[in-house]
Amino acid sequence: MVEKEEGGPGGISEEEAAQYDRQIRLWGLEAQKRLRASRVLLVGMKGLGAEVAKNLILAGVKGLTMLDHQQVSPEDTRAQFLIPVGSLGRNRAEASLERAQNLNPMVDVKADPESVENKPEEFFTQFDAVCLTCCSRDVMVKIDQICHKNSIKFFTGDVFGYHGYMFADLGEHEFVEEKTKVTKVSQGVEDGPDTKKAKLDSSETTMVKKRVVFCQLKEALAVDWSSEKAKAALKRTTPDYFLLQVLLKFRTDKGRDPLPQSYAEDSKLLLQIRSDVLDSLGVSMDLLPDDFISYCFSEMAPVCAVVGGVLGQEVVKALSQRDPPHNNFFFFDGIKGNGIVECLGPK
Length: 347
Fold this sequence. Notes:
Blueprint: H1 14-19, H2 21-27, H3 29-36, E1 39-43, H4 47-59, E2 63-67, H5 92-103, E3 108-112, H6 121-124, E4 129-132, H7 137-149, E5 153-160, E6 163-169, E7 172-183, E8 199-213, H8 217-220, H9 228-234, H10 240-254, H11 263-281, H12 301-320, E9 329-333, E10 338-342
Parallel strand pairs: 1-2, 1-4, 2-3, 4-5
Antiparallel strand pairs: 5-6, 6-9, 7-8, 9-10
């Protein structure tokens, strides 16, 4: 199935063919070739960042740069499995490097201890995809605009307690989807109900090319809920979208996420921010009842695993141009144990 072509730009070595055998069977050789030619920037190495890093390294991207300027805190030891015991005070990206690289020696894994806010625009253009975690709203919007302009696939995600989300802006994205072939009824049948029915033959499939257009994060977070059409859509929109707006505002105001050790103080502030945010969006306070504050503190390892699995999957799908992507939000509610894809934007 795979020829030995060491180092050839279009080929794949026998070693790689053996390593990625199951994936090649799942999504095909062409998709794996695209993946192994892709470089990804991952910002923020907390619990969610560790899950995404693990998934992308095992999938077999060409290179992964883990960027984080923060030091390892006691909080990080709960959900961040790439950081060894005894790393308190070390840089988070550098502390994650050894275990991350050991997952797959064929991937070029790097650690960058600088702040993403200090990086110039040209820094991002060396990557095929950029995935942000732990970033402020302003930073996410700014980097998304850079990625959108330079046709770089953009992702962002976070975990807040039992809740998690991811957002994708793939610009104008083309992909292929495997479809079951429709076979025509044989010519011998002239009448009866079968003449009008096309039959699905599950044994035969065909690859269909498709194209989808994404909006930018700034537009997705600035939906106008005052129009009649938006008010009708509001009934179908998950409250997690509004919870995200509240938590991003908290992060902007405090420079951090809600902390269990500041529960009383942070709870009061969350309720105040909820009132301000929902009022400015023109929606009812009933969308986020008071008890929402009990479920959005700290990073829950199982929620990181679910959101990191979906986020990693979406990066792989975008880079390999295989299968329809989630357009554009995915929200996970760990209380209910369900995830939902929402398409929110200017239209």
